[in-house]
Design goal:
about 150 residues, Thrombin, subunit H, 2 domains, Chitinase A, domain 3, four-stranded antiparallel beta sheet, mainly beta
């Protein structure tokens, strides 16, 4: 392998700089770096879920590609057990309304985002599924650079 940067391909221990666009089934853009700085990360560092990282393996600088990421490799399937019924008093001064996104702390103190689905008198139904759970996402990438990661 020569020292020419274009000879490197995405694999473990490589630093990757890329632009990406994440779209829903109906082509709605969920996230994109196109109008911002490109994303730079080390393959396997946890910045990207494995389902998004795996298809990138073997791509080199200049590659343009698009991948369909099924829910089980993206944000999981929608799980009915993640929909909880809370009491209105659990919201304190906040007025729960459908669509309202709130953050709740679980028993371990971890912040869990939840979206209010339904308010029925004193009962408030909150969905703790990831907003993209159950969705097949299109992951479009434009690889700008691939190089060995430097350890700090």
């Amino acid at each position: 392998m020569s020292d020419d940067l274009h000879d490197y391909v995405i694999d473990e221990g490589m630093e990757i700089t890329l632009h990406f666009t994440l779209k829903l089934e109906d082509a709605t853009v969920v996230d994109s770096t196109k109008d911002k700085e490109p994303a730079t990360f080390v393959f396997g560092d946890g910045n990207l879920p494995p389902g998004f990282e795996h298809p990138l393996k073997g791509l080199g600088a200049g590659a343009h590609d698009s991948f369909a990421i099924p829910p089980e490799h993206a944000f999981g399937q929608h799980n009915e057990q993640n929909i909880q019924t809370l009491k209105r008093e659990d919201f304190g001064d906040e007025t729960p309304e459908p669509g309202l996104m709130l953050s709740f702390a679980d028993k371990a103190g971890t912040e869990l985002p939840g979206v209010v689905k339904e308010v029925d008198g004193e009962r408030v139904e909150v969905d703790f599924n990831h907003p993209l759970a159950g969705r097949t996402l299109t992951f479009e990438v434009e690889v700008i650079n691939v190089k060995p990661a430097t350890t700090h």
